[in-house]
Structures are given as C-alpha cells and as structure tokens.
Amino acid sequence: MEVEMDKLVSLCKRRGFVFPSSEVYGGINGFWDYGPLGVELKRNIKEAWWRDNVQMRDDMVGLDCSIIMNPKVWEASGHVGGFSDPMVDCRASKERYRADQLYVFVYIFPAVNHKGEPTEAWLAGLGASPEDAAEAPEKRAAKLAKKFGKPTAPPTVIPYMQIDVADREKVIGPSTEDRGTLTEPRSFNLMFKTFVGALEHESNVAYLRPETAQGIFANFKNVVDTARVKLPFGIAQIGKSFRNEINPRNFTFRSREFEQMEIEFFCRPEEAPEWYAYWRKARFEWYTSLGLKSEKLRLRDHDAEELAFYSTATADIEYAFPFGVSELEGVAHRGDYDLTQHMKFSGKDLSYFDEERKERFTPHVVEPSAGADRATLAFLCEAYTEDEVGGESRTVLKFHPRIAPVKAAVFPLVKRDGMPEKAEAIYRELKKHNNVYYDEKGAIGRRYRRQDEAGTPFCITVDSQTTTDDTVTFRDRDSCRQWRVPAAGAAQALRDLLEG
Ligand code: ATP
C-alpha cells in the first residue's frame, strides 16, 4: 500500500519515533530527534549494517573518525572548491531555493490593460516541488478567475532551470523567461564552517564533515600498517555528517545533520570492475533481506553524463517514497582518485605494496555509501500498513523482526490471580536477550493495537489457562494468529521466531 507522508509523520510523532529537533523552541529546519522507538529502530538498522558488512566478513575492518578534521582534507577531496549547489533567492517571499529543484507554476488569464486592450495576466507560484509551487496560486487563481474569467490554458508546472548533472556549477539555462523576482543563481557551499580554538580568524576555520568517507582515506595508511589487511579489503564507518542543505525537506530524507554508513573497498585496479558489480548487487540485496521487498526498491545505473569525472561506474539504490523516487545509497567505482588526491595534498605516500607480487601501486576503490536516516525512513514507509482485524481498522508497522524496535510485549490478561507476577517473571527472562516491553494497563485489544503501531512482532499473554496448564498465548503481529507455548519455553520460542 502507499502510505501518505503526513500520516507517517504524525504516527512518528505520536508514537515517539521522530520529533522535530528543539521543538519546544519552535524547532530548527533540517534537524530531527529520534524518540524512544525511533532510536531503537535506527540503532537496529545500523547494527544490522555493521554486523553484515563488517563483523560477518573476513575482508572488512571498521573505523570511527573525528567529525572535525584538518581542513586540508576537504581541499584534497574537492569539497572546499566544489561541494556546492546552485541557489537562488526569491526577493518577494525571501525564500531560498536550490535552483535545480525549483518549480514554477504558471496560470495565464485573459485580461485587459489600462487602455482597455486585451492582454494576458500571469499568476506564478514558486516551490521546491511541483506541489509546493501549485499550492499558493491555486487559491489566488480562483479570485482572479472571478475577475477575468477562466484561464486561457490549463496551468503548467515547469522546472525553473535545468542544471548540467555532470557539472552542477553549469546552468544550461532557465526554462522560463519569467525570472521575475529571482536573483541570479549562485553557488552555495554546503559545508558548515566553524573555528577551532579561541581565535575566530580565517586561519582557524574548520568544517563539520559533509561525509564520513574522507576519514577512511585519511586513515588508509594507518590501517594498512596496523591491521594486517591485504588487498582486497574494505574499511567501514558509521557516523554523523553535516550539510547545510538549501532546502531541507521531505521529513528526515534531506536533513542538515544525518548519519552515513560508508564502505571504501580497496582492490587491485584490474579487479575493481568485478568488485563494483559485487557491491552493487550485495548492497541491493541487503535492503531486501531486511524487508524492503516491494517493487518500490530500485537499482539505477548512472549514464555517462551523470558520472563524476573520476568515476567509471555508479549506481543508485533508490526507493519510491511517497514524495518521489529518491536515493537511499550510491555505489561508486571511484578509481584511485581519492588516494591520489590525498597523496598530492599531504605529500605522504599512500600507495600499497603487494608482498607476493613485489609490486607497488595505488589501489582502486569501490564505495557503497548509504544514509542511516534515509534507510530508516524507507523501512518506515515500507512497514506502514492499514488493515482490518475483526471488523476494526488498525495501523500496523510490519517491520522485519531484526529491525523492530521492540521484539515482544508481555501482558497479564488481568491484574489478578497471580497473572501480573507470572507475566513479569517471563518479561524479566526475555529481557536478558531482547528489547521487550511489559504492559498491564487497559483492555487486551488496545494493548495489542499499541504494539501493532510500534511494530512489535510478537505479543505474549498470561491468561487464565496459564494457571491450569502453565502455557501462554503467543500472538503474531501480521496475521494476528494466536497459539500456545509452555511458559518455561517462551524465551526459546521467541528466539526461534526472531531468528526464523
Ligand atoms: P542527494 O543527491 O540526495 O543530495 P547525494 O548524492 O549528495 O544525495 P551522497 O553524497 O552520495 O548523497 O551521500 C551518500 C548518502 O548519504 C546518500 O545516499 C544518502 O543516503 C545520505 N545523505 C546525503 N545527504 C543527505 C541528507 N541531506 N540527509 C540525509 N541523508 C543524506
């Protein structure tokens, strides 16, 4: 089913998945906080990524680098010079837009000029999406129609300008003559600047990292010298990144502070195409293994003009979000570009010596670069389901058990006959292995619904039959099927279900 974005955002707020950052002060655009359920969900996603890509492999090691690095890193990587988006300001609304994501919505009405001659009146709206652009003029159009009559043509939405995707600095040209109240596009660097030390002087400028990848390249030699790694091998990192996005939007999808899960996989140059094909497939399958099974998950190869100049092949793993098909992860064959750049700027030798072949060379790299927040949002969209149980409608988050924030909830049917004590003992036992929840308040049906909304795969209820045969009721979230399990075997039964 297709989830509506506002329904998902309101569920996330209501149930404590995601809150606007510093909301008591009116929030701050582009920043989000994960609540009690959200933090568990996102941690489970990051842990699944780390487990599957680092700990389960023999050819991968991890790193955790600092967020602020020597600013030369960002000169070498090209971020100081080129990490920018084209930006325009609207003088009328004082809004700022990314020019390559700006839409103009135009109505043309028949009108008369001051001499009484027939002419045309234009009504235009600007927005960061076609819907945004259409919103304002639709109301005003109704008023104009009363005055002038019907528009002469159906309204159209056009992108403000087309940007050369291979070289974002280059504006091919506006797609409308009517630039109206917009300033000329100019490039805007997306890195957050700060000062290190007491002096707010140019010489102390530093940046919050806009990606985690460069920390990996900067540590390439440290890892080779200390970790006994041999090509081919990868270095992985999960951590916060910061980009001063011009238009943060679509909930957590485009934030100014976000978390990345990145791998740099180093190999011999001639083996790079094979490793690229391997990671392109492996990373796609990782999402399906955690439940992104629908046709909404896609793999799109970049065509030649979309490729960065140093890349011979790049593919995006995309998801059809309610606001459009958008990137979850990029897998790029980056050649030896990054290590070569860092050698140039640092003056240090970052080449690799192959002991067996007695050869020295600069490894090539394949980079699968994912966003933890975008993955979390995709899993939320995929899981969101509205269905009917016993004639009653319910909202259920059908998370894969591995990423579900709470694995099981334990209930006493009623608060008497020793049921709470028994349920609590089971809860304490389960808690040793899993994140579980205990709830004794309210009607049992309501308690089930609350867990369905939190995405809890199993509920375990102690009821009157428990007092006679020492079994408990297990309930499956998706099918609502119920069956009985000996109380003493509840922990093992849950483990089997979660692993199965
Ligand atoms: P986009 O074109 O959507 O801005 P990008 O191509 O600039 O993304 P990369 O630089 O390839 O993104 O970053 C790798 C990953 O980091 C992305 O696939 C995404 O999951 C995540 N990411 C990048 N920018 C943001 C952001 N502003 N908010 C949340 N996640 C992000």
From TrEMBL:
Top-level lineage group: Bacteria
Family matches, as Pfam families: HGTP_anticodon, tRNA-synt_2b
TM region positions: none
MF annotations from Gene Ontology: ATP binding; bis(5'-nucleosyl)-tetraphosphatase (asymmetrical) activity; glycine-tRNA ligase activity
Subcellular location: Cytoplasm
Catalytic activity: tRNA(Gly) + glycine + ATP = glycyl-tRNA(Gly) + AMP + diphosphate
GO CC terms of this entry: cytoplasm; extracellular exosome; microvesicle
Record's keyword annotation contains Cell cycle: no
Record-listed substrate binding positions: R98, E211, F258, E259, Q260, M261, E262, E367, P368, S369, A370, G371
Domain Aminoacyl-transfer RNA synthetases class-II family profile: from-to ranges: 170-412
BP term (GO), one: diadenosine tetraphosphate biosynthetic process
Assigned keywords, A-Z: Aminoacyl-tRNA synthetase, ATP-binding, Cytoplasm, Ligase, Nucleotide-binding, Protein biosynthesis
Residue runs in coiled coils: none
Keyword Cytoplasm tagged: yes
Main location: cytoplasm
SUPFAM superfamilies: Class II aaRS ABD-related, Class II aaRS and biotin synthetases
E.C. no: 6.1.1.14
Binding, ATP: 243-245, 253-258, 327-328, 371-374
Function text: Catalyzes the attachment of glycine to tRNA(Gly).
Family: Belongs to the class-II aminoacyl-tRNA synthetase family.
Record text on subunit structure and interactions: Homodimer.
Name of this chain's protein: Glycine--tRNA ligase
Record lineage: Bacteria, Pseudomonadati, Planctomycetota, Planctomycetia, Isosphaerales
Gene: glyQS
